[in-house]
Structure formats: C-alpha cells, structure tokens
C-alpha cells in the first residue's frame, strides 16, 4: 500500500484526483482552504500535482504508477501547465514511466508556451546539450532567455556561462557576466560556483584562482561546499600545497560535498596527501566517508588499487571480481568500469574480452539509461574496427545517431578505438576545411597540428599541445 498526502482546494478537479488516486490504492488526505472556489487555476493545483508526481520516486507498484499517470494526464489534457511539465519530462527522459520522446516534447512545449519557467529551462538545457533532444543552440538560447527574463536563476546561470565561454552560443561576455551576477545577487550559490569554475580554468574569462576561491567561499557561506571541492581537488593534483588542499577538501566534505571525500581517497591512494605511506594510510578513512556519502566511484577506486597493486597484490581477476560484485549490488559506476575494462583491457593484467563486455552490458544494462546502453554497445562494436576499410562504415553508423553524440560517448570511442576516433576527427576537419591530409585514422603530424588548432579554437583544454591525445579531449572534439 502506497500513500500520499495531498493538499487540495475544493472543486471538480479535486474529485477526479481523489478517484484516480484511490483506484491505484493510494490514500488521500485533503486539507481544504477557507472559502469555496468554483474555478481553479494551474497555479492553485500545482503543489498537489507535484506531490502526486513525487510518489513515482517512492518505489511505486504498477497500479500506483498507472494512477499517478492518469492524474497527470487528466490535468495535462485540461491545459494545466504544471501537469504538462511533470508528465512531459518523465516521458522525454524515460524516468519511471516508459520513454516517449515525441509525447514528452509536445507536453513540455505546451507548458513552455504557457510561460512555465521550469519547462522552458528543461527545453533550453535539452537543446543545448542534446539531452534526449537534437542539439539546437538557437532554440536553447530562446528557451533559456525566456526563463531568464522570467527570473529563473538557473536559466541565468546556464545561459550566462554559455555566453561567457562561447562554447555552444555566440560569445557575449558582458551579457553573460551580467546574468551570472544577477543570479548571484539573488542568492544562487550554484551561480557562484559556476562562475568560480570559469575563473579557475580561465575559460572565457581571465584565469584568476583567487577570484574563483572568493566565489567558492561565498557559496560555502550559504552551505554549498561543491565549489571548495573543485578548488581543493585542483590544488591537490597540482601538488602545490598538499596540507592546504586536504584541509579545503575536508571543509567541503563536511559541508555535504560528497565528491570531496572521493577526491581525498583518490589522492591518498596515489600519494598526493603527504606522499608515500603517509598518504596511502589515509585511504581507508576517506573511502569510508565517500561510501557513507553515496559516492559510487569509491568501488572503482578500490578496484583500481587491486588492479595496480597499491597496498595490495596486483590482480586483474580480483579487480574484475570486485567490480562485478559492486555492479551486482546496483553500482552503475562499477558496472561501467567493468564493461570498459573488458572492452579495452589494461595492457597489464586484464586482457580485452569483447564478448565478456557484451555479456556484462546485457547483465547490468538496467543500471544505465537507454541512451548509455546504446552508446556502450556501439563502443564495443567500434573497438572491433581494425582497418581504414572498417572505419568508414562504423563512422557512418555513429554519425547517423546525433541523439547519442556527447563528449562522454566521444571519450568512450577514443578509448575503445583511438584510430577510429582520429579517422572521424580527420573527416570532420576535412569537411570544415582545416585539414587536407589523408583520412586514415593515424595521428600524423599534420593531423595533430589540425587537432591542436581545433582544441585551441574550442578552448577545450588549458594545454592543447600534450592533451590532444587524451580521450576526454578527443571525445569532446569528436562529438560534443
């Protein structure tokens, strides 16, 4: 039996909601506002609909899911923008309800047309990043701009960052900084962190670590430690001041930024917290805090210790067994690492096993989104293309699926088959007129020069010389 408490005004819609919820085995507690209301606006019922939708995240049974969907569909059909937004995002993304991108998009568009700000932000981000929608910077700017005009701090933050960097939208630093500052002035700690990260990396603005830190400290005063976690992580890996980095990361973790404990465990494992045994002795304590904070990747770090023999005997089979056990317990990060290791091997104690990678994807695929399952499957197929004659058809298959294109998938392709990734980069650069060499998948001097130029043009790395062979950079250039 599932229950939900609904606060609802009187009226015919409330009667329909009660009937639908009861039909699904849900109990309804109504608290009526003073005075009768013959008509109800979308705003009046929005809190009720949100509470109804929230039950979808509480392990509902099939009857409860059908009932909640019925309530949302009834309200959406009646023109309720909040119902259109809630149901639309579920259908677009395949959350709990089966995915139906067309229906989800139509509902979100209807809500956005009715000036529903959250729907405008969702569509803006979807078109900006290709989140179950085709990448369309013009539409992204339109939706985010409308939401920003309506006062959405999130829209100001996302749009502001894009205008500052020019990553997806035409660069307009002055407007971008203005939007960011508006969000910060309105108390948006995430805007402080987003702008701080730009100053930390020098992406679109001068590189000013102290300005970044001041913004992160401002967010920390509001109880958000994620900026300090990013700053402490960068400081730790720079090895400039290990003690200070550790102190900052501890502060971030205590503020609820669980990724800080993961950074500390990672640094401890590789000797970045005081060096050698002193550093490695700190791993267990930070690993326990990372686990308590729900950081799934701690299982991956523990497997890496086993793989490389850090404070234990190196063993490829034990590494795979650790990852498999964590995946069986529902750890998606461990499942993904298992698939990648089986697909690629590690050139030490784990051999490439594509059949094993496919079996692992079949076994643990439910831990991933539909999109990620297809991306992993294609990356395994891509790993088998071993000559230029095989690159062309594989590149055509990938190019025909723009809905799958993002930097993560590009990085997976670069890991699975670097030659295929460079073949596709050569194709792209030749089409753009910035490369005139052979299209063969080899990282020739001419290819590397063109890739470095493209990296600098798109500002994807602080070091576009040495880093252009990194899968993360290749992937971002390839499919981002």
Descriptive report:
The protein is an all-alpha fold and about 475 residues long. It has 4 domains: about 1-110, no CATH class; about 115-225, Serine Threonine Protein Phosphatase 5, Tetratricopeptide repeat, CATH 1.25.40; about 295-370; about 385-480, no CATH class. Helix content is about 65%, strand content about 0%. It is built from 26 helices and 2 strands. A two-stranded parallel ribbon has the order 1-2. Helix 1 (about 10-25) links the parallel strand 1 (about 1-5) and strand 2. Helix 7 crosses helix 8 (about 155-165), helix 13 packs antiparallel against helix 14 and helix 20 (about 355-365) packs antiparallel against helix 21 (about 370-385). The longest helix has 16 residues, at about 60-75. Residues about 1-45 have low confidence and may be disordered.
Number of helices: 26
Percent of residues in helices comes to 55-70%
Distance between the termini: 45 Å
Strand tally, please? 2
- Please give the order of strands in the largest beta sheet: 1-2
Rg over CA atoms, rounded to whole Å, is 25 Å
Low-pLDDT stretches: 1-47
Largest sheet: 2 strands, parallel
Order of helices and strands: EHEHHHHHHHHHHHHHHHHHHHHHHHHH
Structural class, please? mainly alpha
Number of domains: 4
Overall average residue pLDDT: 88
Fraction of residues in β-strands: under 5%
Shape: globular
Q: Secondary structure elements and their pairing?
A:
Layout: E1 2-3, H1 12-23, E2 26-27, H2 42-54, H3 62-77, H4 81-93, H5 101-113, H6 117-129, H7 137-149, H8 153-165, H9 173-185, H10 189-201, H11 209-221, H12 226-238, H13 242-254, H14 258-269, H15 276-280, H16 283-292, H17 297-308, H18 316-328, H19 332-344, H20 354-364, H21 370-383, H22 388-399, H23 407-416, H24 418-431, H25 445-458, H26 471-479
Parallel strand pairs: 1-2
């Amino acid at each position: 039996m599932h229950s939900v408490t609904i606060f609802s005004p009187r009226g015919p819609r409330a009667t329909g909601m009660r009937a639908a919820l009861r039909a699904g085995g849900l109990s309804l507690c109504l608290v009526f506002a003073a005075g009768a209301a013959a008509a109800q606006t979308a705003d009046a019922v929005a809190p009720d609909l949100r509470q109804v939708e929230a039950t979808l995240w509480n392990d509902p049974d099939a009857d409860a899911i059908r009932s909640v969907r019925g309530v949302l569909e009834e309200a959406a059909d009646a023109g309720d923008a909040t119902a259109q937004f809630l149901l639309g995002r579920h259908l677009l993304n395949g959350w709990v309800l089966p995915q139906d991108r067309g229906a989800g998009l139509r509902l979100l568009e209807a809500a956005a047309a009715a000036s529903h700000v959250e729907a405008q932000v969702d569509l803006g981000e979807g078109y900006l990043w290709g989140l179950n929608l085709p990448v369309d910077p013009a539409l992204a700017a339109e939706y985010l701009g409308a939401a920003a005009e309506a006062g959405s701090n999130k829209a100001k933050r996302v749009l502001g960052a894009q205008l500052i960097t020019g990553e997806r939208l035409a660069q307009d630093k002055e407007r971008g900084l203005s939007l960011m500052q508006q969000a910060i002035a309105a108390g948006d700690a995430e805007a402080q962190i987003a702008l701080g990260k730009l100053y930390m990396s020098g992406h679109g603005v001068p590189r000013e670590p102290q300005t970044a830190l001041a913004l992160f400290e401002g967010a920390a005063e509001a109880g958000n430690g994620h900026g300090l976690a990013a700053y402490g992580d960068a400081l730790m890996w720079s090895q400039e001041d290990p003690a200070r980095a550790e102190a900052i990361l501890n502060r971030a973790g205590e503020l609820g930024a669980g990724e800080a404990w993961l950074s500390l465990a990672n640094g401890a494992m590789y000797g970045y917290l005081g060096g050698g045994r002193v550093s490695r002795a700190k791993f267990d304590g930070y690993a326990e805090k990372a686990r308590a904070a729900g950081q799934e990747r701690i299982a991956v770090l523990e497997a890496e210790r086993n793989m490389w023999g850090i404070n234990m005997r190196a063993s490829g089979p034990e590494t795979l067994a650790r990852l498999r056990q964590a995946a069986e317990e529902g750890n998606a990060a461990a499942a993904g690492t298992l698939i990648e290791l089986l697909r690629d091997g590690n050139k030490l104690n784990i051999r490439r096993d594509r059949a094993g990678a496919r079996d692992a994807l079949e076994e643990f695929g439910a831990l991933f989104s539909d999109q990620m399952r297809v991306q992993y499957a294609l990356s395994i197929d891509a790993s088998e293309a071993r000559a230029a004659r095989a690159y062309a058809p594989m590149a055509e298959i990938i190019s025909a699926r723009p809905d799958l294109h993002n930097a993560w998938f590009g990085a997976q392709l670069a890991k699975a088959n670097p030659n295929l990734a460079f073949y596709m980069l050569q194709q792209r650069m030749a089409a753009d007129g910035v490369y005139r060499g052979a299209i063969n998948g080899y990282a020739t001097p001419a290819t590397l020069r063109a890739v470095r130029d493209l990296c600098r043009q798109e500002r994807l790395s602080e070091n576009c010389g040495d880093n252009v062979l990194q899968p993360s950079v290749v992937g971002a250039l390839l499919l981002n």
